[in-house]
Design brief:
Length: about 200
């Protein structure tokens, strides 16, 4: 996999909360090593940044409440994007891309649009390709139906299984040797931070 190489200390990052829906309020837990998903790592300095941008942001709890009420579309674009990107990072980091599809696949198209908005185009392309493998070219909005679709794909489609594993590594990083990790070409955290600056500057004009 092509991507960026990072060096230094790494710790896996898991998110507390109900895995059935992305609530992720508060500090992002950087202290627990995941035995099952050892490639889900961030550099230590990202720990604080992802808290500031997403799960520890003052608006995060209200964004979650809006999403639970299916009122995400009522939010301003920056807030919608913060939620969609944060949940993608949180779900994939906590349980992988398959967990994200199970919990948040109803936001698949919106999340691809959010990734393009922050200029993470390669990440958007990969996620869109996976979403297009679902019946009707998108995951169902119905949670039970979507879960059945996901199970069917994981059971029958090698292309989907390989794609999910590749997206895990692309977004969260893969250890290649010692303290060296390879990440996808898009630094989604940094790209969101840059987008936030642009959005706030535009709003201030």
């Amino acid at each position: 996999m092509n991507g960026m190489m990072r060096e230094g200390s790494r710790r896996s990052r898991e998110v507390g909360g109900d895995s059935s829906y992305p609530i992720f309020v508060g500090k992002f837990d950087c202290t627990h090593l995941s035995a099952q998903r050892t490639h889900h790592f961030f550099v230590d300095e990202d720990c604080t940044e992802i808290d500031d941008l997403f799960f520890g942001h003052p608006d995060w709890a209200s964004l979650v409440e809006k999403a639970l009420k299916d009122e995400l579309s009522e939010l301003k674009q920056l807030s919608q994007t913060r939620y969609l990107i944060g949940v993608l990072l949180g779900e994939v980091g906590n349980g992988g891309t398959d967990q994200w599809f199970d919990s948040c696949g109803h936001f698949a198209i919106e999340t691809v649009e959010a990734l393009r908005l922050i200029r993470a185009d390669k990440t958007a392309d990969k996620l869109a390709e996976l979403g297009a493998m679902f019946p009707g070219s998108r995951p169902s909005k119905d949670e039970e139906v979507r879960s059945e679709q996901l199970t069917q794909l994981l059971d029958t489609s090698e292309a989907f299984r390989v794609g999910v594993e590749d997206f895990d590594k692309w977004l969260m990083g893969e250890m290649v040797s010692g303290d060296d990790f390879v990440f996808g070409d898009d630094d989604v955290i940094d790209l969101f931070a840059q987008y936030e600056v642009r959005a706030q500057a535009f709003a201030g004009n």
